[in-house]
Amino acid sequence: MDDVLLALGTRKGLFLARRTGSSGGDWEFTGPHFPMQAVYSVGIDTRRDRPRLLAGADSSHWGPSVFRSDDLGQSWHEPARPAVRFPEGTDTSLERVWQLHPAGPAAPEVVWAGTEPGALFRSADGGESFDFVRALWDHPQRPQWGAGFGGQAVHTVVTDPRDADAVVVAVSSGGVYRTTDGGASWAPSNNGLKAEFLPDPYPDFGQCVHKIAQDAVDPDRLYLQNHGGVYRSDDGGAHWTEIGKGLPADFGFAIATHPRRGGVAYVFPVIDGGDRYPPDYRCRVYRTDDAGASWAERSTGLPGEHHYGVVLRDALRTDDADPAGVYFGNRNGEVYASADEGESWRQIARHLPDVLCVRAAVIG
């Protein structure tokens, strides 16, 4: 039986939940860890003998920091010297860690951190310390990156499990950038992505990308939720094609993929404009089983009418159980879980602070 750990970063701390036994079993919650700190990023690193948890917590008094735990959250370690910090000469300081991404098996000790202001850091020791990725910061287009409502940040990191030097990042609002040499050089990769709010709707860069997720079977296939539009790339992000037909809205923040089945992705549509609520005020997840050729509503067990909870960019996630679990949290402080790959749902938490990020993994 799968032993699953669920991590929920919220506006006021980190909550951990653990489910042992059957897929329909109860969840045991602990927290808040880091009370009164906004937790925008969590990483569950299962590449080592004991899983390591990484948390990017943001204290209004002490500032942002990266914590780690090697005992599933029973204790946390904060380094004496900040793990992530901007070097002298950049004339800036860390505001927030938006992403903590353990790389794949090709780089077993590498963890990437995306930050606000928009920058990237790389750890070669499992997240204990990080080095500044100078080439992305020095890219000539960076001074022209905008800032979405959530701020300007590198909020998504995708790594190729076959090639440790191939990395894709998403910047709000800068677009998609790729490296094939481990971060020594970067190029914009936004061919086909629309920026409907700019005079040129298809610029070289400047798109407001909300999230990218990687296909489980084909690492070159990526799915992207844009500020207006859902897209797919079949060549590692070099070109993008719209795949949002059949959705009630092509705006949204989150996108996630199945851990083993190729062509399977999940989105939570949101109406753009002044409302920014789910379409028809109904809580609905949509799933594609054919790489975006079609979408189907998966809402059994979810609230029907008069529901206003929005799912943020990092708050929809799958685990690696069999069958796969799917999870999302919203700004109402509700958390929903599916133990059957999205076919049905149940609420497992309520009345939490705003849910900012969700991570889940089999740990036993």
From TrEMBL:
CDD domains: Sialidase_non-viral (cd15482). Transmembrane segments: none annotated. This is Exo-alpha-sialidase. It comes from Streptomyces coffeae.
